[in-house]
Amino acid sequence: MCxxxxxxxxxxxxxxxxxxAVFATADGEATWSAKLDRDDVRAGEVARVVxxxxxxxxxxxxxxxxxxxxxxxxxxxxxxxxxxxxSAGPLQEEPPxxxxxxxxxxxxxxxxxxxxxxxxxxxxxxxxxxxxLTVEINYEVCNAQNCMPPAKQLLTVSFNIQPGEARTxxxxxxxxxxxxxxxxxxxxxxxxxxxxxQIKKAQDAGMIPFIIxxxxxxxxxxxxxxxxxxxxxxxxxxxxxxxxxxxLNYSGxxxxxxxxIGTFTLLGVLVGSAGLNRFATNIWxxxxxxxxxxxxxxxxxxxxxxxxxxxxxxxxxxxxxxxGLVGPLVMGLTFTLTSFTCTVPFVGTxxxxxxxxxxxxxxxxxxxxxxTAFSLPFFFLALFPGYLSKLPRSGQWxxxxxxxxxxxxxxxxxKFVSNVxxxxxxxxxxxxxxxxxxxxxxxxxxxYMLGWLRLPHDGDVKVGWVRRGFGVxxxxxxxxxxxxxxxxxxxxLAAFLPPDPYPGRGGQExxxxxxxxxxxxxxxKAKATGKNIFIDFTGIYCTNCRLIETNVxxxxxxxxxxxKFVLAKxxxxxxxxxxxxxQRLQVKMSSVNTLPLYVVVSPEGKVLKIHQQEPPLDDAKQxxxxxxxxxxxxxAMK
Length: 638
Fold this sequence. Notes:
Layout: H1 4-24, E1 30-36, E2 46-55, E3 60-62, E4 75-81, E5 85-87, E6 92-93, E7 97-101, E8 106-112, E9 114-123, E10 129-139, E11 141-142, E12 151-161, H2 173-176, H3 194-205, H4 207-221, H5 230-238, H6 251-280, H7 283-300, H8 310-317, H9 326-357, H10 359-388, H11 395-424, H12 431-449, H13 465-484, E13 507-508, E14 514-516, H14 519-529, E15 533-538, H15 543-551, H16 556-562, E16 566-571, H17 577-590, E17 597-601, E18 607-611, H18 620-627
Parallel strand pairs: 14-16, 15-16
Antiparallel strand pairs: 1-2, 2-9, 3-8, 3-11, 4-10, 5-9, 6-9, 7-8, 10-12, 13-14, 15-17, 17-18
Helix pairs in contact: 1-6, 3-4, 3-9, 4-9, 4-10, 5-9, 5-10, 6-9, 6-10, 7-11, 9-10, 11-12, 12-13, 16-18
């Protein structure tokens, strides 16, 4: 007999697979048909299977030529098959329309309205009469806002082989094909960036190495700064979860991990590598997360207790010793959303290559492996409060820990408030203001830990050395934030900060450097002064951009060299015409769409240097070695 826990897990897995099945068939934006290019084919001749896609208005599909970190290329997932035919060459296409695609932030080949592809076949000798062949095409369709999951279409073609000798004009692919068709150029059939190449190498080695690779990427994602705000939430939530007879409750942690795995996998399949980033930066997502973190902080301070409705609790408790799985599932979903800002580079790379190389099933397997690795440490973290609840005299110290975590939640909430401020261009939370608010929160938290402040629900508190140590460290964090306002190196904390200067304003940043907000103004200034231009292609949500801008740019030797350039800070991840123009400029100058990217340009507009900072990102010497040869000597400035 299955236990209640087993039945619940089975239901959750069935729901997950059902949702995947529903969305995996969302391919109705294109209607496909297939036929031979001529009716009079003979044995021994070469012909072409014409694959035609009729696209809904506003939608487009993509060229057969892959683009690194770009869209899913149209390709044959199954070559033409039939008793009388064999493949005679790679898939071909009419010349596509090359344009900038905002979904992938780069130039790609696209087809709108309709698209035609051609699969060359050879009719086997000795065959005649009525025949059938099948061909399977793999493709992706997108509109201006988002992309559908890659889809497959299996098509059947009926044809007759005419009697007679093979004709010379139809003896080869070249002679049978009209002019103007293109095929993937040599050396361009694989992703060119290192991460995608590693993924492809793992895929080529077999599914097990690929799963191990995806699993490893999930573990690496745990090192990003967006993971840490969920630690206090996890500890606080599961500290209240107890099983009967003092036994540990495993169902809650399992449901929590299923929430993480299910959300990552479903969103990965549904929105793809480009849509994932757009979802993470959506203003309403950030508003919701801001409110959620503030509410959770208030709960940790003891202002109120977060409870499910009584009817739901009563119903759940009658079926489960643990009190239901809804809460842990929602917590897992929350964790996934809050981590997107930092996990997008990992998930986006994995999605872009798996969809291009292995199709939907490989994408699902890769995302399952990735999210499983990402959730495992939190499974054990969720179990940990179960042990804590069995310790004696756990009352007041746990209240203190929860209150301290509340201060951390407020600091995390400010990050999402900042995202909303940046999206609406309010200009309230500039980097100095952000650091000042953080300093205030940390100072108050430190005073609480030192016993100088008390919350209403605090009992008789004796401040021990452990609590005093945390108090001193938290006050030190406040001092660090104040120092950051004056250019002090902040390390990983910089990943949470808004850009400086504020996007679209240009002007002077904390380090004393003056930045132009547009390329045109920078170019005009360069022509007037004779200086080269240093362009910082950056993003308002780019964590690596903040790490470099806050930890490298303010260093005296770097600041001195940057002062010899005309400086331009161009944002590329906003939903504005200016941002779109900056994206196109970045791709035009470098053929790279990743952030951060640094480009040195002459006063005449000639690209002199393209630099991408390699880890460690705070390596000032690496940065200086890249830009120093192009700095304008002070004596030459006019």
